[in-house]
Design brief:
Helix content is 84%, strand content 0%. The protein is an all-alpha fold. The chain is globular, with a radius of gyration of 29 Å.
Length: 171
Amino acid sequence: VQVVFSEGSSLASSLGEVHVLASVRCSVSCRRLEYRGVISRFSRDSQWVAHLARFGIVGAFNTVLGLLCIFIGLHYLELGDVEANLFGYAVGFTVSYGLHRSWTFRHEGPALRSLIRFGLVILVAYGSNLGAMMIAHRYAGLNVYLAQTIGVLVYVTMSFFGSRHFAFRQA
């Protein structure tokens, strides 16, 4: 609907003021929505960064703890190489699951379900680690130390994204 008034009428100037006021309100409301979108995106991005930082802290702690358990198994418990390694990894897996569930991702879903999913993530990450390392060393001809480093990077990447988006996914 379009209504035309002459420029000099008082009704036309009143309608003009209403139009300007409506435009200002719309502009402010639209800007609020834009800012909310930016804040929401920033919040999601900062949560991702926080997850990654906590994941790294738990990983570093878990690496030291796992090695300590392996050394204790070898020296004090007089376990064989394989048994000590299994002992260290079992402790590491348990601690890693608990810290990632409670602190890294603050997951509140069913514990058994996330435990099973976390186990699957670790198995896939470890298989990816071995595959990447073997391809890098045997087929690409890279130095074994570089190949192992590539394998570790693949493992960490797979376990982070698998944990975040599968094992401890928020509903």
